Amino acid sequence: MTRSARAVPVLMYHHISTTPGMFTVSLGHFAAQMAHLARSGYTTIGSTQLAAYLAGEPLPKKSVMLTFDDGYLDNWVHAHPVLQAHGLTALCFLVTSWIGEGPMRARSGPKLPPLLNHRDGEVAIENGDADRTILRWSEIDVMRDGGTFEFHSHTHSHVRWDQVSTNADDKCAGLARDLIAARTTLKARLGAASDHLCWPQGYYDDDYRRVASQAGFRHFYTCETGSNYPGNDDGAGRSISRLEVRDRSALWIASRLWVHTRPAISRAYLKIKR
Ligand SMILES: [Zn+2]
């Protein structure tokens, strides 16, 4: 390795689907985006590599991280095979109380399950039918074994404790219980739970950071736009900025990565945007 990455963009996806909707990248665009990454010599990095990079270790110059929030069924049906075809890897943030039991669902053919759009999926989850839109443990196991996905915490319930609590003590207690339940479930089902946490709806405050760091988390994935550089660990952990991927072509992702792998250009670009 002659030169290390000067900035590492972390891309944020939710749905990869043939069903159009909010927070959805079409399968065609996603396949083109991943083909571009592979063709252009990008290395997709994992959580351990990102943590080491932020602590000062070098990474290949063209490094990028792919992340998927919430653990949707379409990640199994569409994202996993595309990643596997290109030898790319990603992180998926699971809401552990939503995940179902049962056999793997078909990824093609007549038994392919209907893929709900974001709004219909939200309704299914509210109605206690998360299985229609969320991954099962059997699918998670195959995605892990296939080497495409790592799985990390997005809390147990996805509840916004700042919105449902009447005071700060209740908020902190609710979040603490939520994080411990998520950690216990991941440990029981996957054999391990990492110190990487994705904030539900990107929300956090000082209490959230304190409670999460007491629960053993050190890497916090936000919805704040930007790239990532070594340093800036404030002792209670490190916030990770992300780039929300739009339903756009490979050319669009190429331009985003060009900007956000260059610290000065990335910072200037974000300043102008604000
Ligand atoms: Zn989420």
Structure overview:
- It comes from Pararobbsia alpina.
- The protein has 274 residues and is α/β, with parallel strands linked by helices.
- It has a single domain, classed as Glycoside hydrolase/deacetylase (TIM Barrel), CATH 3.20.20.
- Helices cover 41% and strands 17% of the residues.
- Strands 1, 4, 5, 6, 7, 8, 9 and 10 form an 8-stranded parallel sheet that branches. A two-stranded parallel sheet has the order 2-3.
- Helix 8 (206-214) links the parallel strand 8 (196-198) and strand 9 (219-225).
- Helix 1 packs parallel to helix 3 (73-86), helix 1 packs across helix 9 (250-260) and helix 7 runs parallel beside helix 8 (206-214).
- The radius of gyration is 18 Å and the shape is globular.
- The mean pLDDT is 96.
- It binds zinc ion.
- Zinc ion binds next to strand 5.
CATH homologous superfamily name? Glycoside hydrolase/deacetylase
Q: What's the helical proportion of residues?
A: 40-55%
The number of distinct helices, counting runs of at least 4 residues, comes to 10
Kindly state the mean pLDDT as a whole number?
96
Q: Identify the CATH class.
A: Alpha Beta
Q: Any low-confidence stretches, pLDDT <50, length ≥5?
A: none
What sequence of helices (H) and strands (E) makes up the elements? EEEHEHEHEHHEHHEHEEHH
From the spread of the alpha carbons, the general shape counts as globular
Q: Biggest sheet, in brief?
A: 8 strands, parallel
GO molecular function, one term: hydrolase activity, acting on carbon-nitrogen (but not peptide) bonds
Keywords: Signal
Domain NodB homology: 62-274
Protein name: NodB homology domain-containing protein
